[in-house]
Amino acid sequence: MIKFFRHIRQNLLMENKTSKYFKYAIGEIVLVVIGILIALSINTWNENNKSEKEASFQLSKLRDNLKADKVQLNADIANDSIYIDNLIFCVKVLSSEIEAPKEEFFESFQFMSTTISFNPTKGTFDGLISSGKIELINNQNLLDALFLYYNEDGYGAWDSALKDYSRNVIMPYLLDFDHISNVTDENEGSNFTQFDSSKFSIPKKTIDDYKNNLFIINALRQKIQLFEGQKSAYKGLLTVIDSLISNIENELKN
After folding, report:
1. In terms of C-beta density within 10 A (0-12 exposed, 13-18 middle, 19 or more buried), how is residue 18 classed?
2. How far apart are CA 115 and CA 87, in angstroms?
3. CB neighbours of 242 closer than 8 A, spacing ≥ 6?
4. Domain chopping of the chain, boundaries
């Protein structure tokens, strides 16, 4: 093709057709410019197509992360309900609202030391931030909502309160008050070393000892409220996750 154009130029010069030569040269330049523009357009289209595919891939990963978070939250909410029911049972036993054998009481009372915390799956989002690929998400409302979800942890206050209260208030007191009820010779089949509390000179507390202990009664009620607050916060977070998943799926359809 280049030889063909060169041959035309040479013929025009040899025939001394200067004006036609310049017109032809201008036309050739225009053709070259048009070719360059077409090539740039194709390259831009290819880049945009690659960006769109990458954006869809990353959005799909974010959606999968959110779905995993939803599964975890539902499990945590279910566990919160179990712990709340067990601790309410303990309160009713201590208030003599219901009667229960000591063993049944301690099966539920063991959840006084239990904590739950939620950590969102942030791998994909953090990777987008560190790599600069977060700009692939061009829906500003969705982007703002994602930043809010991964950085605003209103539920975190409940997680921290539950953990701090359990570890720094409840457990130190219970360790000084009584033998730990779930580490005894009754745990047959456990892989941990078993201790028979009856071998020690300090006897285990009775149900009446627990009934007459104001700290334990108040601690039970406080622990129930913390679990309830956490459960409510998690339910609110589920609503946020559902909204994010819906918005991402709408983006993927576009």
Report:
1. exposed
2. 13
3. 70
4. 2-253
